[in-house]
């Protein structure tokens, strides 16, 4: 039997074939994606050896989000910066870990793209060997390529993303990518260091059967979300619950099996916990490219224009009709059944 691996569509080949026909193709977008894949291989190797390489636990520092920095967070952030200062590709990188964006130094020649990353999402799961991942989104820069990257290159609506993806470090390492034309997953064969197409054209059906939400916060949710989640638990709803506390893992499972993920705002934190640029936009881009939807509870998430790099957002994401139901439950006119 010939497996998809044996057919041998590598991530490199896929990137080459999907970017070469683009009217503005210069090879630089392909190089950018290949550099992210290089970073992913390095991070994956370090994640697998974390317990042996003394990479578990914290650095003792607190990041710009007020969270404890893990050694693997710091490593992943550095690896991505080194990979993306590849000459002529990227002008700047905004990371969940750094207060200010990293501007690619002049000596490396600036490039036409601006990238936002969560270098290691779900890092509270590192020490328990649960799944974590890297999330990224790519914008075409707005400012002139004659100057260094400007913050306006990153404060663009999500609809301006030209590509997004994530890499999940789980029982295997999988690179999930969309450049707008479908969503495709590539599994790393660690013996040869290559990603092979393993999940072509991932699609979200109109409805799913899983819901993922941290119910410990239920008393703090808007009433509409409490009502909506209650309907999901009715005997005839046919739903099951799964929540690992690692957005990238919860999203990946729901993308493959069908489901809705919710991280609503609360009275105390109306904007929720998750970050618009580093988590919300890239996953919303992927959800829509797979036929699903994403909202902040008020409108289409990708239409938001960030005012600052570290802006937070409520996030409801997954199968289209499930996201629509949750959004309806949040509208002022909604009456609980
Ligand atoms: P991180 O980017 O610092 O890891 O934080 C984000 C994570 C998400 O991966 C996950 O969905 C969420 O935080 C879980 O938060 P909570 O523990 O409040 O449910
Ligand atoms: Mg995160």
Structure description:
It is a single chain. The chain has an 8-stranded mixed beta sheet with strand order 4-3-5-6-7-8-9-10, sandwiched between helices. A 5-stranded mixed beta sheet has the order 12-11-13-15-14, sandwiched between helices. A two-stranded antiparallel ribbon has the order 1-2. The chain has helices at residues 4-7, 11-19, 28-48, 71-84, 223-232, 247-257, 276-289, 320-330; strands at 58-62, 68-70, 90-95, 102-103, 113-121, 132-140, 161-169, 173-178, 184-189, 194-199, 210-212, 240-241, 259-263, 293-295, 315-318. A hairpin with a 5-residue loop joins strand 1 and strand 2. The mean pLDDT is 90. It has 8 helices and 15 strands. The protein folds into 2 domains: 11-199, 2-Layer Sandwich (Fructose-1,6-Bisphosphatase, Chain A, domain 1), CATH 3.30.540; 210-329, D-Maltodextrin-Binding Protein, domain 2. The protein is an alpha+beta fold and 337 residues long. Helix 2 (11-19) runs antiparallel to helix 3 (28-48) and helix 3 packs antiparallel against helix 4 (71-84). Helices cover 28% and strands 23% of the residues. The N and C termini lie far apart (52 Å). Bound molecules: 2,5-anhydro-1,6-di-O-phosphono-D-mannitol (AHM) and magnesium ion.
């Amino acid at each position: 039997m010939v497996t998809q691996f044996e057919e041998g569509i590598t991530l490199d080949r896929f990137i080459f074939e999907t970017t070469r026909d683009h009217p503005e193709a210069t090879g630089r977008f392909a190089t950018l994606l290949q550099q992210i894949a290089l970073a992913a291989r390095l991070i994956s190797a370090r994640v697998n050896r974390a317990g042996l390489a003394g990479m578990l636990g914290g650095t003792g520092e607190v990041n710009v989000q007020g969270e404890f920095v893990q050694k693997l967070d710091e490593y992943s952030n550095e690896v991505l910066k080194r990979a993306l200062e590849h000459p002529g590709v990227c002008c700047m990188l905004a990371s969940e870990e750094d207060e200010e964006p990293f501007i690619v130094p002049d000596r490396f020649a600036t490039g036409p793209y601006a990238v936002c990353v969560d270098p290691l999402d779900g890092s509270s799961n590192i020490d328990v060997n649960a799944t974590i991942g890297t999330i990224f989104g790519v914008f075409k820069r707005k400012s002139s390529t004659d100057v260094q990257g400007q913050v306006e290159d990153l404060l663009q609506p999500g609809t301006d993303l030209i590509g997004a993806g994530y890499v999940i470090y789980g029982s295997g390492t999988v690179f999930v990518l969309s450049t707008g034309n479908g969503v495709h997953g590539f599994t790393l064969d660690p013996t040869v260091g290559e990603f092979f197409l393993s999940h072509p054209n991932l699609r979200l059906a109109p409805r799913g059967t899983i819901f993922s939400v941290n119910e410990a916060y239920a008393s703090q949710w808007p009433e509409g979300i409490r009502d909506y989640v209650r309907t999901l638990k009715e005997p005839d709803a046919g739903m099951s619950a799964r929540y690992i506390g690692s957005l990238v893992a919860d999203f990946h499972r729901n993308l493959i099996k069908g489901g809705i993920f919710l991280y609503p705002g609360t009275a105390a934190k109306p904007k929720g916990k998750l970050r618009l640029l580093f988590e919300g936009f890239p996953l919303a881009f992927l959800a829509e490219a797979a036929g699903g939807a994403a909202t902040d509870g008020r409108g289409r998430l990708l239409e938001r224009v960030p005012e600052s790099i570290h802006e937070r957002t409520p996030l409801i994401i997954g199968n289209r009709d499930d996201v629509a139901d949750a959004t309806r439950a949040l509208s002022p006119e909604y009456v609980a059944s």
